[in-house]
Every structure is written in structure tokens, then in C-alpha cells.
Amino acid sequence: MADLYCQYERTPYFDRHSGMTYEEYHQAIEKSTCLYIGNLSYFTTEAQIYEFFSRCGEVKRVIMGLDRFQKTPCGFCFVEYYTEEDTEASIRYLNGLKLDDRPIRLDRDPGFVEGRQYGRGKSGGQVRDEYRLDFDLGRGGFGRVCQVAGAVDIEAAQSASRRSGGIYASGGVSSRNEELDKRFKNRDLTRDRDEDDKSGRKRNRESGDENDEEARARRRRGRGEDSDSD
């Protein structure tokens, strides 16, 4: 059984929208210096990508993947190097490493063409994010269709997330929310106790001041009575 795992190789990426046959596509990428980068966080910046991929050579340019309607990052990009050697080194050493705490996927690409920077999903983003059930904070939460419908099958989301190692796999959104609620409640209770303590100390000081003033007045009256008797 172990031999089966050792013999497994990932199927090479093929863009069916490229207009090329499978053979033409893979001939085109053999000498290409362009890479497709997937599984990015929506919040990863172009500057971070430049810095990350510069580890393997000089980066020619980065083309950010954008939501077709919102024109905001949607989780992928294209990276171009100047040389084939740097491109190959990037695939060899950076594929699967974490960028912004996410393991990224690198695939050779035949070359960027205007228009490919936009998501192909019906909602404007990537197709993979349309029907995603697991909660992925780095990619907008639940899938777009689930968000639009306003109803998420939590049990299905939890099951899918556990299989993919998502947020539910480590305790779940509900348990994390409960923990946060407890922290906020404890913080509010502590704040209320502090306010009560401050109010109590203030009342004690005011009461003490009043008592001191009364005592001083009595002493003054006593001294006045003594002087009158003399």
C-alpha cells in the first residue's frame, strides 16, 4: 500500500479555457517563465508576493487576480520571472510553502493574457469559492452562494471543513465564538466591578470628608464655648 503513495504524482494543471489542446498547452509551458499561484488569502498584498517570490530570482511582474465585479483580490495571481531557471527554482522550492499562513500552490502557466486576471465564478470570484462549505476567513468566510442564500448547512460545513483541515477542525466557529463571548462577558463584569469599587471609594471619601468637617465644626464650637466661659 505504501508503494501506491510513493508512485502517486499530481496531475499537471491544464487550463481548459486557454483555447489550446492538452498537448499544445504543455508544450507552451515548457519554456514559459510565468507561474499561476493559487490558494492565496484575499488580504495578501502585491508587495508580499514580490518579496516571497524574489527568494528564487528577480521577479519581472506580478498580476493580481481580481473579482470580476468588485475589482478586489480574489485569491490568485500570476508571477513572471526573467529566466526559466528562476521559474523552475520557484516551483521546486516554494510550491506548498506558506505565504500569509496559507500553503500556496504553484503551476506553470503558458503566459498571462489580458482578461485572465479576473475570476470566472458567477459571483465574480473564483469558481472554487462559489460553493465552498467550509469557513475560510482568508477567503471571505463561507462560499458566495451560501452567503447570498443566507443559509448555511452548518453540519455539512463542519464535515467538509474537518476533511479539509478548515476552521471547524480545530474546535469550530461556534466554540470559538462561545469562548469570545465568555471573554467579553468577563471583561464587562470586571469593568462593572471596577466601576462599583471606584464609586464605593468615592462615596467613602465623601462620607469621610463630611464626617471630618462635622468633627472640625464641633471642635470649633467647643473652643468657642471654652473662651466664652473664661
Automatic annotation (TrEMBL):
One of its GO terms (cellular component) is nucleus. Pfam families: RRM_1. The keyword Repeat does not apply. Residues 33-111 form the RRM domain. Residues 159-230 are annotated as: Disordered. Its main location: nucleus. GO terms for biological process: mRNA cis splicing, via spliceosome; mRNA transport; RNA catabolic process. Keywords: mRNA processing, mRNA splicing, mRNA transport, Nucleus, RNA-binding, Transport. GO terms for molecular function: RNA cap binding. InterPro entries: NCBP2 (IPR027157), NCBP2_RRM (IPR034148), Nucleotide-bd_a/b_plait_sf (IPR012677), RBD_domain_sf (IPR035979), RRM_dom (IPR000504). It comes from the Eukaryota. Residues 176-199 have a biased composition (Basic and acidic residues). The keyword Nucleus applies. It is found in: Nucleus. Belongs to the RRM NCBP2 family. This is Nuclear cap-binding protein subunit 2. It comes from Guillardia theta (strain CCMP2712) (Cryptophyte).
